[in-house]
Specification:
By secondary structure, the chain is α/β, with parallel strands linked by helices. The protein is built from 16 helices and 18 strands. Strands 1, 2, 3, 4, 5, 16, 17 and 18 form an eight-stranded mixed β-sheet that branches. Strands 11-12-13-14-15 form a five-stranded parallel β-sheet. Bound molecules: zinc ion.
């Protein structure tokens, strides 16, 4: 135990260092801005927003005295909450899968940190990371070592043999009892567990690493090799054991699942967030609404320049089948008022990852700009709160512009409630980006 003491002391010193304490008292005043608060469709016009330390102190249409604050004249632009991506993979978005699998973990983490900085400049100030060992990158961001969004980490996926999280080679079965864990498990990207005792243990290990929620593989996947789309992953008893362990930790389980059968079984077992869900049917949508289960959707294109690319034609076929279901599920989610979160799941392709904002703008096909922006801010933030006491960022709410909320803000040149396409080009249209009260971009003269 004693060997941890110097480390803990060093961490405590870092938390209360005088430099940071001084920074916490700093104020920034945005004047002459129209505020989209993340919740209300109507902008608060010609307002001022005062930021103190890392939180919003006041929002007012009556001028706020600037005192010692740094003043940013918004020039009538729109101030809105930083964006949230509810389905992101910090470790897997920027390199092709073969490179990720063969990469040195240190190099992968450094690259992930670099790309997280780029993501922040796209206006995404928070992500829910739904799989991969992201804990080191998160720590580097949270301690100010590098710039990047806030990360709600799931850590290793919990998945079954032959499931969506089984990255072992095709000839690695049957597993010899003495076989060591494969590389993806040893470094904590994924954990393969079968049977109730094993899933309980692996889920607890993910929580021990610091998962704010558990990500479980509940059904067939697009990119994975051994699981056809139609399969349900885990039995009810295993699913319930995973959910129950998350509950004892006062958090929840998000599931990777597409088919109606898998979602129904896991919904009955108590999972609270369905990732993808491209084949949800009527009764299951109703059940999700009744139980308060979220649908975490991704607006993917089946064809064209933004379609995901796969090496295997089998994956391409699965992908197209999934995306074809999107229209129908959006209609069902509307019909039953299923809580809906927005995410991108952009994987293994830096050019695609750079289009994160463009994917948000794709929502205009089905949603009003207001609905889309509310999803990517306050609605997504409501989903994040399901982590309960495991929420890593609990000083104030996220995804809203109001007193006491985290000062994660974007100043948009134009009104995104009238033109959602503005979010597709953050380099041009996001003139100020603030995260945690700190300005990370300011291109106003
Ligand atoms: Zn994913």
């Amino acid at each position: 135990m004693n060997s941890f003491k110097p480390l803990l002391a060093a961490l405590a010193m870092a938390v209360v260092s005088p430099a940071l304490a001084q920074q916490a008292a700093q104020q920034t005043l945005f004047t002459n801005v129209n505020v989209f608060d993340g919740v209300n469709e109507k902008l608060m016009e010609n307002a001022s927003v005062l930021v103190e330390g890392n939180l919003i102190k006041s929002v007012s249409t009556v001028p706020i005295p600037s005192d010692g604050a740094t003043v940013i004249d918004g020039g009538g632009r729109t101030l809105m909450p930083g964006l949230i991506d509810a389905h992101w993979h910090t470790m897997f978005n920027f390199w092709p899968i073969s490179q990720v699998m063969g990469a040195n973990f240190g190099a992968l983490s450094i690259a992930a940190a670099k790309h997280s900085g780029e993501q922040l400049l796209r206006g995404f100030t928070t992500v829910r990371d739904v799989g991969g060992n992201v804990f080191g990158v998160k720590m580097a961001i949270d301690t100010g070592l590098v710039d990047g969004p806030r990360i709600y980490p799931s850590g290793p996926y919990i998945g079954q043999t032959s499931g969506h999280g089984d990255f072992r080679g095709p000839n690695d079965v049957p597993e010899n009892p003495d076989t060591p864990l494969d590389y993806t498990q040893r470094i904590g990207h994924t954990l393969i567990a079968d049977g109730v005792p094993d899933v309980i243990k692996r889920t607890r290990e993910a929580l021990r690493m610091g998962a704010s929620q558990i990500k479980a593989m509940a059904g067939g996947g697009v990119s994975s090799l051994y699981d056809p789309l139609d399969v349900t992953e885990y039995t009810f008893e295993e699913a319930k054991a995973i959910v129950d362990v998350a509950k004892t930790w006062n958090t929840y389980v998000a599931i990777h699942a597409n088919t109606d059968a898998a979602i129904r079984m896991w919904g009955e077992a108590g999972a609270l967030s369905v990732e993808h869900g491209f084949f949800i049917e009527d009764e299951t949508a109703r059940m999700m609404a009744e139980k308060g289960i979220w649908w975490s959707m991704q607006p993917m294109d089946a064809h064209g320049e933004d379609a995901f690319q796969f090496e295997s034609p089998i994956s391409t076929e699965k992908y197209e089948a999934c995306v074809a279901g999107l229209e129908q599920v959006i209609a069902l989610a509307r019909k039953y008022k299923v809580k809906t979160a927005f995410g991108t799941d952009l994987l293994f392709d830096p050019e695609l990852a750079a289009k994160e904002g463009k994917f948000l703008a794709k929502l205009k096909k089905w949603y009003s700009p207001y609905e889309a922006l509310k999803m990517a801010t306050s609605d997504n933030a409501e989903l994040l709160v399901l982590s309960g006491p495991r929420n890593p960022y609990s000083d104030g709410p996220l995804g809203v512009v109001k007193p006491g909320a985290y000062a994660d803000l974007i100043l948009v040149d134009g009104n995104p409630l009238e033109n959602l396409d503005l979010v597709a080009d953050p380099g041009k249209n996001f003139v100020v980006i603030m995260k945690d009260g700190k300005i990370v971009k300011n291109t106003i003269d």
